[in-house]
Amino acid sequence: MSVKIKTVSKALPEFSRETSEILPFLDVWLNGQDERFIRKVKKIFEGAAVDKRYSIMAPEEVFSELSFEKRNDIYIREVIKLGKECLSVALGQANWQPKDLDFIITVSCTGIMIPSLDAYLINALGLRQDIVRLPVTEMGCAAGVSGIIYAKNFLKANPGKRAAVVAVESPTATFQLNDFSMANIVSAAIFGDGAACVLLSSDEADEGPEIVAEEMYHFYEAEDMMGFKLTDSGLQMVLDVEVPETIASHFPEIIHPFLSKNGMEIADINHLIFHPGGKKIIQVVEELFGALGKNIDQTKEILRQYGNMSSATVLYVLQRYLETNPPPGETGLMLSFGPGFSAQRILLKW
């Protein structure tokens, strides 16, 4: 019995801006700061390899004195809207009915809502009353792949079932107006908002790339490298400058043993479906795998077009690969990183 990825969909918020259109807002935000500091911040935005990003709020709202409560209210409203949209689109692409779903996982770390998103989707789309639901809230950028791993394990134990993973993120809702730290500035420069949905199946009638293997990898003594601190003004970004170097130092342990367990090596992988954490992490990956003739062009393109949308981003990369219709026998390696610090890996075969 195999578990396959049936389809992937995405949904985007109504507001969007090119990076060049964001720069004037920086002048207002940074008013009164040292001129050299202002130039440095603009250089970070211009050099982030993000041409455009989407947001659940207009820039005027993002760069305003909105309270934590107000930002989170907008987050809840828009997350429900985007989650409903991408799940509806995915069901249409798969030609499934809402009541065909047996398991739903919702993923988001950029706001706080109880009941969680999955409860709203059950009502909005008329999902079954006995559907199994799992909200994943605190795994950050890694959670898109984590959700697929959880769905795969459920489906492997339950043949003939179907599952949905819905990831909806709004990093712009966590922007801190009075925080001029590098963590807040870098996150504002690289992150954007977006949603994605993956449908998976253990029904033999459904087609798609098979999940051959999956594993998580947890770094020791690295809890403080990435995450959010809950403050009076909202979720404040924690982002250590050593993240790219730390990832690079662990890459051999992350990649090679996992592939070896499945009788493979990196040369056997046709598609690297990597989460675009940011420009520096992309450079690290290219330095490691470029010499082997591998590329992460799709990852770079997603970062350029949308920015880092936390957990949803790697699912955008996956969608682009699915749209190319790889021939049977080709393989893909999905990889994402998140707080903890952790790496999540999935091996796919078409």
Category by helix and strand content: alpha/beta
What is the strand content? 15-25%
What do we call the CATH homologous superfamily of the largest domain? Answer: Thiolase/Chalcone synthase
The average pLDDT is 92
The total count of helices amounts to: 11
For the record, the CATH architecture of the largest domain stands as: 3-Layer(aba) Sandwich
- In CATH, the topology of the largest domain is named Peroxisomal Thiolase, Chain A, domain 1
Q: What's the shape?
A: globular
Q: Helix coverage percent of residues?
A: 25-40%
Main pleated-sheet profile: 5 strands, mixed
Order of helices and strands: EEHHEHHEHEHEHEEEEHEHHHEE
Q: Cα distance, first to last residue?
A: 15 Å
By CATH reckoning, the class of the largest domain would read Alpha Beta
| Major sheet strand order | 1-7-6-4-5
Unreliable residue stretches: none
Using only C-alpha atoms, the radius of gyration works out to 20 Å
Number of domains: 2
Q: Find the count of extended strands (DSSP E, 2+ residues).
A: 13
List keywords for this structure.
350 residues, alpha/beta, Peroxisomal Thiolase, Chain A, domain 1, five-stranded mixed beta sheet, four-stranded mixed beta sheet, 13 strands
Layout of SSEs?
Layout: E1 4-11, E2 15-18, H1 19-29, H2 35-46, E3 52-55, H3 59-62, H4 68-94, E4 103-107, H5 117-125, E5 132-136, H6 143-157, E6 162-169, H7 182-190, E7 194-201, E8 210-218, E9 226-231, E10 234-239, H8 243-261, E11 271-274, H9 279-289, H10 297-306, H11 313-323, E12 331-338, E13 342-349
Parallel strand pairs: 4-5, 4-6, 11-12
Antiparallel strand pairs: 1-7, 2-3, 6-7, 8-13, 9-10, 12-13
